[in-house]
Write a structure and sequence with these properties.
Distance between the termini: 55 Å
Radius of gyration: 21 Å
Helix content: 25-40%
Strand order of the largest sheet: 1-2
Number of helices: 3
Number of strands: 6
Shape: elongated
Strand content: 15-25%
């Protein structure tokens, strides 16, 4: 048990063991990435339908493919490299959402943002 391990190895070594165990568990999860800021490195859950990550610690919003500032639907540099290196690679294309709103004359207008 963790209490027995802590008793055998001491507080400092157990803290290191616990941290490494947590890191190994997070590294094995496909839906977890790390904040790309060197001063942060906080684990971040991947956006299920896209490539955006938002760090809960430093609030950095980033593309989890290229690790740069999130660029929305603009092409990702990482995607371009993958197309060149991987035969048959098909990037995921995100379409702009459609918005419906009423203008002053009460007409419904469809717009793409």
């Amino acid at each position: 048990t963790p209490a027995q391990v802590k008793e055998l190895v001491g507080d400092e070594l157990f803290a290191r063991y616990d941290r490494l165990l947590l890191q190994a568990g997070l590294d094995s999860m496909a839906d977890v990435v790390y904040c790309p800021r060197p001063s942060c490195q906080t684990p971040v859950m991947k956006d299920p339908g896209g490539a955006m990550g938002i760090c809960s610690s430093c609030h950095y919003v980033f593309c989890d493919l290229c690790k740069m500032t999130y660029h929305g639907i603009a092409p990702c540099a990482q995607t371009e490299e993958m197309k060149e290196e991987t035969p048959g690679f098909t990037p995921v294309v995100y379409e702009q959402p459609s918005f419906r709103f009423y203008n002053k004359k009460k007409k419904v207008t469809d717009r793409k943002s």
